[in-house]
């Protein structure tokens, strides 16, 4: 398993001066290299053609299962549904206890206590979306209250959304300061910062948002909420991986990456793991540093896992469907 590097609070890293003012932050972000969209997409596509066979494929499938944040974020969520989700996270395949557990379950703040009870003693983390997810259209005190409620109920991780309106109008320091305030409110809970890459329009914007999140103290940067038309893609995930690689080179601080939305098959998951390995290396091939926000992915991973073990696909009732 990769070693866990020592992380440091944002205020201690080498790029502190970049966030001294709106002007310094803007100057820093505008000084980042422009993204070659054609080159980025070509690299992502080429990495997606790598062939993974037999034992390497089995390893990749188990690794992908262990990286899933199993999620329910619907208005119709009930305590019973959340308890069932927790049971599935702890034992994804009830017929095979060798199947790894998922990394976390992710729920709304009012369901954190139920989720915490459901996964107690299993090692599965409880994550909670906050900050007026998914749109983020609320006053800062409301967003911080959302975070504090989730943490008080036992959340191990907080998934927040940035103010895309502020970002797209160039109010970069406002976005940064809001992330910092959420980080403080989250306390010891790890913070995942969601950019909603499908709404940021350009790769340059995704790169800038990545650096704002990292400068503000994010523990993870995350592509999307899964609630819009364009979510995680190999190209935008590759771009974010390059950002965390460069950030660690500049500061010594390692940041995780979470693609979310639209990753549905084992083949998709393996492509993303290849991109991780080829871009940032083995240090990120661990669920402490890489996650999938893709609940429907789990069923296909379990089907493929059984195929490798038995030589045949199971029937349609082998795995539960969310």
Would you give an account of this structure?
The protein is built from twelve helices and seven strands. The protein is an alpha/beta fold and 322 residues long. Strand 6, helix 10 (234-251) and strand 7 (256-258) form a beta-alpha-beta unit. The chain is globular and about 60 Å long. The two termini are 31 Å apart. The model is unreliable at 1-11 (pLDDT under 50).
Name the features.
single chain, 322 residues, alpha/beta, 12 helices, disordered N terminus
Percent range of helical residues: 40-55%
What about the largest sheet? 7 strands, parallel
Number of helices: 12
- Structural class of the helix and strand makeup? alpha/beta
C-alpha Rg (nearest Å): 19 Å
Shape: globular
| First-residue to last-residue Cα separation | 31 Å
How many beta-strand elements? 7
Poorly predicted sequence stretches spanning 5 or more consecutive residues: 1-11
**How do the SSEs run, as a string of H and E?**
HHHEHEHEHEHHEHEHEHH
Biggest sheet strand order reads: 1-2-3-4-5-6-7
Strand content: 5-15%
Overall mean pLDDT stands at: 92
What does this entry show, briefly?
This protein has helices spanning 22-30, 37-47, 54-66, 79-90, 112-118, 140-152, 164-168, 172-186, 203-215, 234-251, 266-279, 297-310; strands at residues 69-71, 104-107, 125-129, 157-161, 190-194, 220-222, 256-258. With 322 residues, it is an alpha/beta fold. It has a seven-stranded parallel β-sheet with strand order 1-2-3-4-5-6-7.
């Amino acid at each position: 398993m990769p070693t866990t590097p020592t992380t440091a609070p944002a205020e201690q890293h080498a790029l502190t001066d970049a966030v001294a003012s709106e002007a310094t932050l803007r100057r820093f972000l505008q000084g980042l290299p422009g993204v070659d969209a054609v080159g980025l997409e070509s690299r992502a596509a080429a990495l997606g053609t790598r062939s993974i066979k037999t034992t390497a494929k089995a390893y990749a499938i188990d690794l992908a299962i262990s990286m899933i944040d199993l999620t329910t974020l619907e208005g119709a969520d009930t305590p019973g549904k959340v308890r069932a989700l927790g049971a599935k996270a702890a034992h994804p395949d009830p017929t095979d206890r060798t199947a790894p557990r998922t990394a976390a379950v992710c729920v709304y703040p009012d369901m954190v206590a139920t989720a915490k009870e459901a996964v107690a003693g299993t090692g599965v983390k409880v994550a909670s979306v906050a900050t007026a997810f998914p749109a983020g259209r609320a006053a800062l005190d409301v967003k911080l209250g959302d975070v504090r409620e989730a943490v008080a109920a036992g959340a191990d991780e907080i998934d927040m959304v940035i103010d895309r309106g502020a970002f797209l109008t160039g109010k970069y320091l406002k976005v940064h300061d809001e992330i910092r305030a959420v980080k403080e409110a989250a306390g010891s809970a790890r913070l995942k910062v969601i950019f909603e890459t499908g709404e940021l329009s350009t790769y340059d914007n995704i790169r800038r948002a990545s650096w704002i999140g990292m400068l503000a103290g994010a523990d993870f940067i995350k592509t999307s909420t899964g609630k819009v038309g364009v979510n995680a893609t190999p190209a935008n995930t590759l771009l974010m991986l390059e950002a965390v690689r460069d950030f660690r080179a500049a500061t010594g601080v390692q940041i995780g990456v979470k693609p979310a939305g639209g990753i549905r098959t084992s083949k998709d998951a393996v492509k993303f793991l290849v991109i991780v390995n080829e871009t940032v290396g083995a240090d990120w091939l661990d669920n402490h540093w890489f996650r999938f926000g893709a609940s429907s992915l789990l069923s296909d991973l379990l089907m493929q896992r059984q195929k490798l073990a038995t030589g045949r696909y199971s029937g349609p009732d082998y795995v539960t469907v969310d």
